[in-house]
Design goal:
- The complex is a heterodimer of chains A (about 325) and B (about 325).
- Helices cover about 30% and strands about 25% of the residues of chain A.
- Chain A is built from ten helices and twelve strands.
- In chain A, the strands form two sheets. Chain A has an eight-stranded mixed β-sheet with strand order 6-7-8-3-9-10-12-11, with helices on both faces. A four-stranded antiparallel β-sheet of chain A has the order 2-1-4-5.
- In chain A, helix 6 runs parallel beside helix 7.
- Chain A starts with a strand and ends in an 11-residue tail after the last strand.
- Chain B is of the alpha/beta class.
- Chain B is built from eleven helices and twelve strands.
- Chain B has helices at about 20-30, 65-70, 95-105, 120-130, 140-150, 165-180, 195-215, 225-230, 250-255, 260-265, 305-310, and strands spanning about 5-15, 35-50, 55, 80-85, 85-90, 105, 185-190, 215-220, 235-240, 240-250, 315-320, 320-325.
- In chain B, strand 4 and strand 5 form a beta hairpin.
- The relative contact order of chain B is 0.13.
- Classes of the chains: A alpha/beta (about 325), B alpha/beta (about 325).
- The interface between A and B is large, with 46 and 44 residues.
- Chain B: One of its GO terms (molecular function) is ATP binding.
């Protein structure tokens, strides 16, 4: 399959009064056509900033200081604003955790969706309206003609997120970046949204980056998983490999701390401590202070190595699933 | 069977939006405007044995938090009784009432909103036991340190303010505040939902340790099935103000009876399922302002028929440990 997106050595730093925050610090990954990549991390790991960087949505004091983002072969890192505007909402679309980030509260749904089409294509209003209606139908919204006349506040949270997804798919983009799109939703609604997103990527061949903190969601959805910690991808590989045989101690710990049936009533594995302060990052491996396998070697940053079909940043991969 | 520590008997909670002056005038002039009533909790019966962890599961708007607040005494019940140790809390007075109220404490979801930002940690934790005379003013400081130690907080940080702590630490402060009055029963309302995965594990472990050390009983309210499956002995499911099923955790997860329980279990994402096809149940939870007649789940239910729209199914006991509210549970 064709590569839609190649990100290499991406660094996005924020130059604040208190110091430089290296929110994204050397991230590499590739997303192919029709593929879903799960980008997993805890709050502050830089997963959302990675998504914003691809769309060129980094505001001062932040900027992309290094690295390349190639979309369909063309370099788009630090591309001029008009070029990015042609891509946004057209070839690359984003779905946010809060659908009200996408929707304008004072405009009707039809106004917003038609605008999203006509911004990139000169089509008659009627055609744009029909495409909007069909898009709402595709994401499972009942009576789409009526819904088009509604304002966002007249819809439930799940319905708004569907509208945001329909809007993202309007121009048949090559890539969709979904940033925690189901985190605020209930279990049954989450399943509906994932179902719609899954169906649409299969039908249209759109590639997707699904950013989340929830390993269980990407386990059922993604082809590949990248686990981020403190601005770096620490482990990257096929979903089955990463979930069933994690190698990085952080991934091992994350998976161990997810409650599930086979550990019922037992103590959960817990990663001690908390994510490091982004202004005062530990030297070397950022995870070392919380890592049980850490030795003085971890004072030097581990290089990216290929182990068992995976890309890994660790001096001491937990081969054989050396269970905690 | 041991006598329950806490028993909820036919508890309902209704919220009514009263008409303002303009509304009353409009009504007088023939407008169809009227008072709106939300049945947040609708005739719920539950009992919790000493030392038990009861998981209360449901989606947003199902009334699980309201029920938790009624149990904790934050809201008064519109109908029904809450029995603590066999006596109706509402019927108690004076010292007895105070003892019963102190014995039930609550831990909230948002560790940012539930702590007063202008109070030091030692005052947040120490205020209630001092006011209630559990410790003398001169001993408060030592007592606060002891409670902080119990929940894994460094006692040397007691002079700090809440904003100087991380989310997980703040949740520990909330737990310490509840434990400071020596409760027997904790209502945990989505107490770990706002935390990161690795921090969630730390707090779940803390809850389990405290249960063992202090012999606590929990009402553990959550939307997250995997957390409840891990921590609870028994689970009750709520849908639009009513309990639809209750069962011991293992039996419920092995063989759910109510169609709603089945749907929830099938749709919760799990680590062991790969590249699955998500096949969700249709529709959304209806507005509690205008719930469907009969069984509240009928518009989304694959088994729904005429009688489901006509009659409300009561919670019926189907085995010594299980109860389900469905006309057609035998067909599931």
């Amino acid at each position: 399959m064709r590569d839609v997106l190649q990100v290499s050595a991406l660094r996005t730093h924020f130059f604040t009064h208190a110091g430089v925050v290296k929110a994204v610090d050397g991230v590499d990954f590739t997303v192919r056509k029709g593929e879903v990549m799960g980008l997993v991390g805890e709050s502050g790991s830089g997963k959302s900033i990675t998504g914003f960087s691809i769309l060129g949505l980094i505001d001062p004091p932040g900027r992309i200081v290094d690295g390349s983002i190639r979309f369909n072969g063309a370099e788009i890192a630090n591309a001029p604003e008009p070029a990015l505007q042609k891509l946004r909402g057209n070839r690359i679309a984003m779905i946010f955790q809060d659908p009200m980030m996408t929707l304008n509260p004072v405009l009707r749904i039809d106004t917003q969706m038609i605008e999203a089409i006509q911004a990139h294509e000169s089509v008659p209003r009627q055609t744009a309206w029909e495409r909007s209606r069909d898009a709402l139908g595709l994401v499972g919204i009942p009576s789409p003609e009526e819904r088009l006349r509604a304002y966002p506040h007249q819809l439930s949270g799940g319905m708004r997120q569907r509208v945001a997804i329909a809007t993202a798919f309007l121009n048949r983009p090559d890539l969709i970046i979904a940033d925690e799109p189901t985190t605020a939703l209930d279990v049954t609604i989450q399943a509906q949204i994932i179902h719609e997103a899954q169906k649409l990527t299969r039908q249209t061949g759109t590639a997707m980056i699904w950013i989340t903190h929830d390993l269980a969601v990407v386990a059922g959805l993604a082809d590949h998983i990248s686990v981020m910690y403190a601005g770096r991808i620490v482990e990257q590989g096929a979903t089955d490999d990463v979930i069933d045989r994690p190698l990085h101690p952080y991934t091992v710990g994350l998976l161990g701390s997810v409650p599930s049936a086979n550990k019922r009533g037992q103590r959960l594995y817990q990663i001690e401590g908390m994510t490091p302060n982004m202004l005062a990052m530990p030297k070397g491996c950022a995870f070392a202070p919380r890592c049980r396998a850490a030795t003085p070697d971890c004072q030097t940053a581990p290089p990216i190595t290929e182990v068992d079909g995976r890309r890994l940043r660790c001096h001491y991969p937990q081969v054989q699933g050396a269970a905690p | 069977m041991t006598a329950p520590l806490l028993e909820i008997r036919g508890v309902s909670k209704r919220f009514t939006k009263r008409l303002d002056v303009a509304g009353k005038i409009a009504q007088h002039l023939g407008s169809k405007i009227r008072e709106e009533t939300v049945h947040a909790v609708d005739a719920v019966d539950l009992s919790i044995a000493p030392g038990e962890v009861l998981g209360l599961v449901g989606e947003s708007g199902c009334g699980k938090s309201t029920l938790g607040r009624v149990v904790a005494g934050i809201h008064g019940a519109s109908d029904g009784q809450i029995l603590y140790d066999g006596t109706d809390i509402a019927a108690l007075t004076g010292a007895e009432k105070r003892a019963a109220t102190l014995a039930i404490q609550m831990i909230f979801q948002d560790p940012f909103a539930s702590l007063n930002p202008r109070m030091r940690v030692e005052d947040i934790i120490g205020e209630a036991p001092r006011v209630h005379g559990l410790v003398s003013t001169s001993d408060t400081s030592d007592y606060v340190e002891e409670v902080m130690g119990k929940v894994g907080l460094d006692p040397s940080l007691k002079r700090r303010y809440p904003h100087q702590f991380s989310g997980g630490q703040r949740q520990r402060i909330g737990i310490a505040r509840a434990l400071a009055v020596k409760p027997k029963f904790l209502v945990c309302d989505e107490a770990i939902a706002a935390l990161d995965v690795s921090i969630q594990a730390q707090v779940i472990n803390l809850f389990m340790d405290l249960r063992q050390k202090l012999g606590l009983t929990y009402l553990f309210i959550s939307h997250d099935l995997s957390v409840v499956e891990h921590i609870a002995d028994r689970v009750a499911l709520m849908y639009l103000g009513r309990i639809v099923e209750s069962a011991p955790t293992e039996e419920l997860f092995a063989a759910p009876k109510h169609p709603y329980t089945k749907a929830l279990l099938a749709e919760a994402p799990r680590l062991d399922q790969r590249k699955r096809d998500f096949a969700p149940i249709e529709g959304e939870i209806p507005s509690p302002l205008d719930p469907p007649p009969g069984c509240h789940f009928n518009p989304r239910c694959p088994l729904a028929r005429e009688d489901c729209r006509a009659r409300r199914p009561m919670l019926e006991t189907i085995s010594p440990t299980r109860a389900v509210a469905c006309h057609h549970w035998t067909e599931t």
